[in-house]
Write a structure and sequence with these properties.
Its cofactor is pyridoxal 5'-phosphate. Keywords: Amino-acid biosynthesis, Methionine biosynthesis, Pyridoxal phosphate, Transferase. Pathway: Amino-acid biosynthesis; L-methionine biosynthesis via de novo pathway; L-homocysteine from O-succinyl-L-homoserine: step 1/1. The protein is α/β, with parallel strands linked by helices and 393 residues long. The chain is built from 14 helices and twelve strands. 38% of the residues lie in helices and 15% in strands. Helix 1 runs antiparallel to helix 3, helix 3 runs parallel beside helix 10 and helix 12 crosses helix 14. Bound molecules: pyridoxal-5'-phosphate (PLP). Pyridoxal-5'-phosphate binds next to helix 4 and helix 5.
Length: 393
């Protein structure tokens, strides 16, 4: 299947048809597997014979999802996890030890910052933060203890982008690994491994599912890092993916490219339309020619993606009035769903930051984030219009 196109692999890879001749991928709901003899059981446990033992280690439905996602990201190996956070935890536990340092982009998913600062720090792993799009700052912050460079691109919610080729070169010059949380783009729009990254991390909860049904995650990379180190943590510590969720994600991957292109088309239209609204002060969207890293569109990232952020006039009052005037958009911090969502980052996802930290991160009180779903864009615009009209200067 490796030679086939992206859409074909997204639909066909990973399902090894059983003697039943099923067309759809089966869900293997079994916790353990039966051996034909005591000798076979011994050989499996000793690792002398390949095969399933227990579903905390391997499960055929989970493996189908792993093979499919590995193929789409262009990696040798994928390991699925119970959530996106479990994927990040497994990478850190598998590849780092006390005394090592993580160098990370400052703008990160909130729970990731919490994991690094509160929990990993307790085990002697320190994290240093640098501005995502400033490669000189990354290079200057590396020291002899730095082992892992970590980033999300584009960032949430301001859609700032890192140049992944540059970051990979910096990482490897200093004998470090580069891990990229590819949740916002998915392999349909961006493949970090092809740009030099060592590890790709996913919250499958978002676009891989695409319909807001299940929580899950994954790590993709080579046989050594992912197949041995990360897998070793998963099978021992246990935050593995359930076969039912794996099956939902398999179905999600089948339409991934279609959906991502449609999300991005809608987001681009919405960003253009917002630019023309007098109540909007600034629009953040990588597809806009005024975006500071717009040059990466087409060379790193296929389109601008599905997330648009914008500053409303009137600060928090303006932003809340806009959000509360919507009837169609869902007021929720989730993203990657067919349903469009609207969020006020300063009082939700970034509410735990101090006002100084928020303003350093560029998260203004008037900032609104829309994760554009797959509804008709005219209906999304019509839903935003009352709140925007209310604030004409
Ligand atoms: C949601 C999210 C995560 C965490 O994933 P869960 O599946 O919720 O554990 C990590 N990174 C990014 C960018 C996310 O949006």
């Amino acid at each position: 299947m490796m030679e086939a196109g992206f859409a074909t692999r997204a639909i066909r890879t990973g399902h090894w048809r059983t003697p039943e001749g099923e067309h759809g991928e089966p869900i293997f709901t079994t916790s353990s597997y039966v051996f034909s003899s005591a000798a076979e059981a011994a050989a499996r446990f000793a690792g002398d014979q390949a095969g399933n033992i227990y579903s905390r280690f391997t499960n055929p439905t989970v493996r189908a999802f792993e093979e499919r996602l590995a193929s789409l990201e262009g990696g040798e190996r994928c390991v699925a996890t119970a959530s996106g956070m479990a994927a990040i935890l497994a990478v850190c536990m598998g590849l780092l030890k006390a005394g090592d340092r993580i160098l990370s982009s400052r703008s990160l998913f909130g729970s990731t910052t919490m994991l690094f600062n509160k929990y990993l720090a307790r085990f002697g792993i320190e994290t240093t933060y640098v501005p995502l799009s400033d490669p000189d700052a990354w290079e200057a912050a590396i020291d002899s203890r730095t082992r892992l460079l970590f980033c999300e691109t584009p960032s949430n919610p301001l859609t700032e982008m890192a140049d992944l080729r540059q970051l990979a070169a910096i990482a490897h010059r200093h004998d470090c690994l580069l891990a990229v949380d590819n949740c916002f783009c998915t392999p349909a729009l961006q493949r970090p491994l092809e740009l030099g990254a060592d590890l790709v991390i996913h919250s499958a909860t978002k676009y891989l599912d695409g319909q807001g049904r299940c929580v899950g995650g994954a790590v993709v990379g080579d046989h050594k890092l992912v197949g041995e180190e990360v897998f070793g943590v998963l099978r021992t510590a246990g935050p593995t993916l359930s076969p039912f969720n794996a099956w939902v994600f398999l179905k999600g991957l089948e339409t991934l490219e279609l959906r991502m292109l449609a999300h991005a088309r809608g987001a681009a239209q919405l960003a253009d339309w917002l630019l023309a609204q007098p109540a909007v002060e600034h629009v953040y969207y990588p597809g806009l020619s005024g975006h500071p890293q717009h040059r990466l569109i087409g060379t790193q990232q296929r389109t601008g993606g599905g997330i648009v952020a914008f500053d409303m006039r009137g600060g928090q009052t303006g932003a809340w009035r806009l959000i509360d005037a919507t009837r169609l958009l869902s007021i929720t911090a989730n993203l990657g769903d067919t349903k469009s969502t609207i969020t006020h980052p300063a009082t939700t996802t970034h509410g735990r930051l101090s006002p100084e930290e928020r303003s350093a991160a560029g998260i203004g009180d008037g900032l609104v984030r829309v994760a554009v779903g797959l509804e008709d864009i005219a209906d999304i615009q019509a839903d935003l219009l009352p709140g925007l009209a209310d604030l004409q200067p």
